[in-house]
Design goal:
By secondary structure, the chain is an alpha/beta fold. The chain contains 15 helices and 13 strands.
């Protein structure tokens, strides 16, 4: 029980670490959004302060209030005590907001509406009152305040009896607005609000990202195992026409990448041998995950160890794999299936890699018609007799039925998942679709694993493996 709780605690910590990492990635990716929102916030509050500013004036007066006296005599014995002070503090707001006081001020000023608002505050345990009037006109602020002080005793007589005001600070007309805008302050405030909105957006991005970022992240959701981690590789540009492709035989590629491809190739072939098969289909959820690079390098690795390998471009909708090997046109799977040429005529060899390839050069508009052709099984059967290993590169499984149609002619399927690229839900749905039609998925390759500038890989900690990858990386748009 204790061990199980430790595992749950560890997963929780890893989730928090992933969330923080996603936030940093989001900050790196969307820093410009924070800057733009900060600028927009500053501009919005500056415009509000300058264009929509209404000057307001405040007049105030301070006085003490005395109560008492005999209404039948002409002399009053006004007095003050703490009880009176408490009563004044409680009743003053109600009297100010009453219609009686408002009507009295209107009658005194001979106006229909009062252009201002009246406020008052009492000092605790005293009879000291501060009354203020806020208005859009300085003259109105003073006039309303003087009228309120004048008519208040008559209105208050019905509540607390006779009152008398002893003025301390007499009302004066304000010389300038009290709400002068601070443009610098508004700009800073707007910038903070905008930046905060950007940070909130990035936090939500990190929270709902839900991409696969660890190789064993899927083992609790499906039965497939990770067959290998392939490190990310960065290319050093060699002109605008350089293609961002990796080849197993390239001397400039880091040894760690070659070792990961070789380990994956050995595992994939072991799965094929156990199934007594020869054809391996390679696919992914969506484009950009590196399935073509993985498929081609698996073919190169097998060929380098004496295997006769046929690489087939099964993505008839694009037919771009040929340009990675030779800059020429030629026949592909479509032409062979339609009987326009034989398999031996269409297949060409690549001297550098040692692989044979069947790659067309013209995109096929009606790909499903070719993939459902009755002669397709015959073509794959002929290829089985001539080659030790056949690797079939197909379109992504999400959105196209091509990979599912081709899987019925294949012995095993290798699924490529790129690190931090596709949401887990989409991956699981695509794999479920493949398995639903009977495809035999041997496992998945976790591609594009980030590496540090140092010598240890991103997954060189804890239970995620330890390996030297060097500083080169991966990149592909297939």
């Amino acid at each position: 029980m204790s061990e199980k709780m430790d595992m749950l605690s560890e997963e929780h910590e890893l989730d928090l670490g992933t969330l923080f990492w996603n936030f940093l990635q989001g900050l790196y990716r969307f820093w410009w959004l924070v800057v733009i929102l900060a600028m927009l916030g500053s501009a919005a509050l500056y415009i509000k302060a300058s264009r929509f500013y209404t000057p307001m004036y405040r007049a105030s007066a301070s006085f003490t209030v005395m109560t008492g006296g005999d209404s039948e005599s002409e002399s009053y014995n006004f007095y003050y005590d703490t009880t009176t002070a408490g009563q004044l503090a409680n009743t003053f707001p109600y009297i100010l907001s009453s219609s009686l006081l408002t009507d009295a001020i209107k009658a005194d000023l001979d106006v229909e509406t009062i252009n201002g608002s009246i406020e008052a505050s009492a000092v605790s345990d005293s009879n000291l009152i501060t009354m203020s009037v806020t208005s859009s006109r300085a003259e109105d602020a003073k006039a309303i305040l003087e009228s309120a002080i004048k008519v208040y005793p008559d209105v208050a007589r019905f509540v607390i009896g006779d009152t008398k005001f002893n003025m301390i600070d007499v009302p004066e007309a304000p010389s300038e607005p009290y709400n002068k805008p601070s443009y610098t302050g508004q700009v800073k405030k707007g910038a903070l609000i905008g930046a905060a909105a950007g940070i909130v957006f990035i936090a939500l991005y990190a929270l709902f990202k839900k991409t696969v970022q660890k190789p064993d992240e899927l083992k609790y959701d499906m039965s497939l195992s990770c067959m290998g981690n392939i490190p990310a590789v960065k290319f050093k540009a060699r002109g605008k026409k350089r293609k961002n492709r990796l080849f197993y035989f390239d001397k400039n590629i880091a040894q760690g990448f070659k070792e990961s491809i070789l380990a994956l190739q050995i595992k994939a072939e072991r799965e094929l041998d156990e199934a007594h098969g020869k054809i391996l289909l390679v696919t992914s959820t969506t484009s950009g995950e590196g399935k073509t690079t993985v498929a081609m390098n698996l073919a190169c690795a097998a060929a380098s160890h004496g295997k006769t390998v046929l690489f087939i471009d099964g993505d008839l909708r694009k037919q771009e794999d040929r340009m990675l090997l030779v800059n020429s046109t030629g026949s592909g799977l479509k032409e062979v299936v339609e009987g326009k040429c034989g398999l031996g005529e269409a297949v060409q060899s690549d001297e550098k890699s040692g692989i044979s390839f069947l790659c067309g050069s013209i995109p096929v508009k009606k790909a499903p018609a070719i993939l459902n052709h009755p002669r397709l099984e015959e073509v794959f059967g002929e290829a089985r007799e001539q080659y030790d290993l056949i690797i079939l590169d197909t379109p992504p499984a999400e959105g196209f039925e091509d990979a599912q149609l081709l899987s019925q002619y294949c012995d095993q399927v290798l699924y490529v998942i790129r690190h931090d690229y596709v949401q887990k839900r989409r991956i699981l749905d695509s794999i479920a679709g493949m398995e639903g039609i009977g495809a035999k998925i041997s496992g998945y390759a976790f591609n594009g694993v980030p590496v540090h500038k140092g010598k240890y890989g991103y997954y060189g900690y804890g239970r995620y493996g330890y390996g030297y990858y060097g500083k080169y990386g991966y990149g592909e748009k297939s």
